[in-house]
């Protein structure tokens, strides 16, 4: 018989009490003892401590972490520490154990993996390196860091104030706004359109247009009087204010003895006065100019100041306080216009159509006019401008209008008087006719040439007929004393060939009161003439006159190679240069019709044109037809007619060597240049013998 003994499990609860439980029966009595671990020796089993979370057990092995190894002493046991030997890390992270996952530039990439650890915009150096963006501003495929012209505007970055802006490259005044967008590039307070020196802050005006600004120019108006002593330094026509003040001429055009600027008088007005346009202000005084709008009146007082009265709902009578003295006024329907003394145009009043918006590039103007809702002005250059209402095209200036002398405005149209400027050089023909109307027909030569009315075969701007026929006259100074042993020379430079005989008039005062007391005139070695002398009638020391005609061919023969003519005046041996107490002298005048371009063979064609067209020979290339050159040289081979056969002639012969020779070079007339021609030349080598 087996005795079954109940078996009890004896255990201690986690609260400290004991519990006995029957766990089964056995054939034998089993003694069971439960051993409980307490690694930290606190009297509580490890199992209970870990199960109830009283202590940490990161690896869930029922052993408190405090009882398990922590090699790096970072508070996390080795079993749970991804980096058991790195006290700074518990996981490898981006950089692995032993390396901190530092991200200096906070770009989300640790320094260990960041090619640019201090550049938050880059993790790799790329083309430009860390700290420099891989930008390609101009899209040319080259990063800005390697591109000498990032914005591809043609200006190197090193010289470009705006290297990333293709629309700008210069900032003269350094205000951060490029010159293209800046209305005042040099920041001198004068807009570029009105600034003669838009890139020079020290200059803005150049009154005399000499390229030197008024601040640096000691004679601003170019009248020859220094500003320091010029009472009107900006008026080239005056050095003192005079009666009318600077900028206004002291003229008397009607010859009534009253200066024009004082011609003003009291203003009168009559007609519709519903809005007071005819009520002359009691303090208006003398005025010099008047104009009218639809229902308002404008006047310039003698002082130059502008006054306006009448209908004022649009402010057309509110003269700007900074307007100053003006030279001209005009009225639109409901706006007023004026030119200040500086030439600047101002406008005020109704601006619903932009009629008071002065164009920024208008500049100085000489005349103004008003339409109903538009404004017109003549710029200093004579060009007409118009702005405001353009419903009927009244502001569309015709492209071929050119410079004009007068303008007027209609209701919705514009009128102008053109300035005749047929050569389109910007200068009215009437002001440059002197020297440009050789045939005296009142039409500019250049225009006649362009129209084919005058020939100009050499394209030098001078009509051929005038080059062959131009009246020239020259007058010497008084040269003294004159007498035996005291010759006087008169040199006239750049003399044109005469196409007629030359008239020579001589005036002399000296010892010329007997038949033997004469004055000899010589032109080089080609012309000699004896003048004056007397029968003894007591005319000593009085002014005498002698008139002679010098033949054309002799005068032309006396023109030296440098283009000058020298006249020699000398008294005969009996003429005492000191016989006259008041001194002796000679003075001469030459007058003739000249050929500024020769027509030596008188065939109606200029020699230069004949030569250029191959119609006449000029072997020595001196611009003269060979047929007109004298003397004829007797020695063959002197091709350049310098009276010598030398290397220069040899060069011309060798240049023509071979068949089809020019007749003038073909010395043996066999049709080619060869040894025979060379032998003939060498036989004549040296100075020529002339006949």
Describe the model.
With 691 residues, this protein is mainly beta. Helices cover 7% and strands 21% of the residues. Strands 14, 16, 17, 20 and 22 form a five-stranded antiparallel sheet that branches. The chain has a four-stranded antiparallel sheet with strand order 15-21-18-19, with no helix packed on it. Residues 1-12 and 21-35 have low confidence and may be disordered.
Q: Could you give the topology of this structure?
A:
Blueprint: E1 5-12, E2 18-26, H1 46-51, E3 287-292, E4 296-301, E5 306-310, E6 326-331, E7 335-340, E8 345-349, E9 365-370, E10 374-379, E11 384-388, E12 404-409, E13 414-418, H2 445-450, H3 464-467, E14 470-475, E15 488-492, E16 497-498, E17 502-509, E18 518-523, E19 527-532, E20 543-550, H4 552-557, E21 565-571, E22 585-595, H5 607-612, E23 644-645, H6 647-655, E24 658-659, E25 672-673, H7 675-683, E26 686-687
Antiparallel strand pairs: 1-2, 3-4, 4-5, 6-7, 7-8, 9-10, 10-11, 12-13, 14-22, 15-21, 16-22, 17-20, 17-22, 18-19, 18-21, 23-26, 24-25
